[in-house]
């Protein structure tokens, strides 16, 4: 991708400011409902220019403060989180970010969908030259918005540059008034766990996605920005974020104030144990809301953990449903040749000497899964304190049939364990960010199939590991670590195609080119999406674990995707108390890595368009010299999702 110097001329400044004024005037009563929402798109030009940059509310962060894509099919899709009344759009092109106007998007369309499968196209533009464009429409109800780019620039440059994609709609008055508002509180446990984390609208970002405080006086205060008739509160405690229910807040009160000085106390709780609590009150006028914590946990731990503090003018939305699958399922050694002395819980299948497990979802559990379904994984450290590879998968079977260890499976999410052990206190537990599974919602909830959810990987307890010289028995020492797994969802109707075909599942590619078997399809609407997870492994000096490279995907006679495997591990150092800090630093420059300990391995999705009556084989190109060093390989999963 070509870079340009950011020179702001008077004419360009006037154009940008004029466009901004136009947007505000045209939609003064509306808000940007795409702001900081989940965004996906075609392959990015660079790892720093992904889809999230187009919904971060900023065009002032320099050249990289944009979504850039040079894929053959260029698109950006935003999940608004719930159905919204959409009344228009604003698109900020290259010129809005200070780049040359010749890079402004020339031709594009904007689509809307309620379910992510069936789309309408209320906006089509064929000859734009402006740095910022606004597109009012007749109000339409939708949850998903997609920007499809057909001519990316005014010249022959083929990269699309979108600095912001705004979806304008009326914010319901019954929404969470505290969302992203100014929050203050008692001293935080860590700089990454400040008050703002309790009003960011999410509990799915892992252990650090919370307000944590260990001060002698524990409190959290939110300025709602204006006076409102407050009638409800929701507090999401430690368990809502995947931590132990023993850390749920036991005793607390909620206060309201019109001026931040004089307070009333409409809510007092003395013996809570629940993960999420809802507190309706008689409507009261207030601008400020305060959560005061008196007993932070169910045990002797003194830190308060608040994942979300929500304030409403109407009824609170339904809480997400949590479907437990595994609770501390043990991972035995991958090099042990005998079956472990362990009997799994009723209904759980154990394979490969206690390194793989699967459990059938009941019809009732499948019925609880909606289009926002996500995986919630928790790692519990024990003896093996090294970084190990793990994978979550599912197997779809005809009714009444039971899978075996060799039954074909679909990989849902790969991950790496952190460097930790049983004696590391709170850092012995790693709650991973929730992994969205919307693409697989139809398959997981298919009422006509028996669906088994599984987890695999195993551990490697070793001589002089964390259990050596500890007073623990042989059964404890045989377990490297344990996993808990749950599905999290707000129940809703799942429509559309339910078919998913797996071409590769944790397949080890040892050359720089590999072509999958052909996948047939019966796509109900003729459309298909490719799901790909790939990362390099090999710990020997010069191994692929210590590299980053460009991966190219080709299917249906054309390039359908290209991306870098490089990752930045800095944010994950906090979860690996037993690890070498150097592993997590300078990963994008002098110390490249293909994955991070304590992190999920990214699954990427690529729109294939029309796949009707076509066999889909995928060629994976890895831009690395061969042969790879030692036992290095690229562990790869590829699936075709019909839609």
TrEMBL record:
Keywords annotated in UniProt: Glycosidase, Hydrolase, Signal
Signal peptide as annotated in the record: 1-28
Any one Gene Ontology molecular-function term assigned to this protein's record: hydrolase activity, acting on glycosyl bonds
Protein name: Peptide-N-glycosidase F, C terminal
Lineage: Bacteria, Bacillati, Actinomycetota, Actinomycetes, Pseudonocardiales
Domain F5/8 type C as annotated: residue spans: 21-170, 172-314
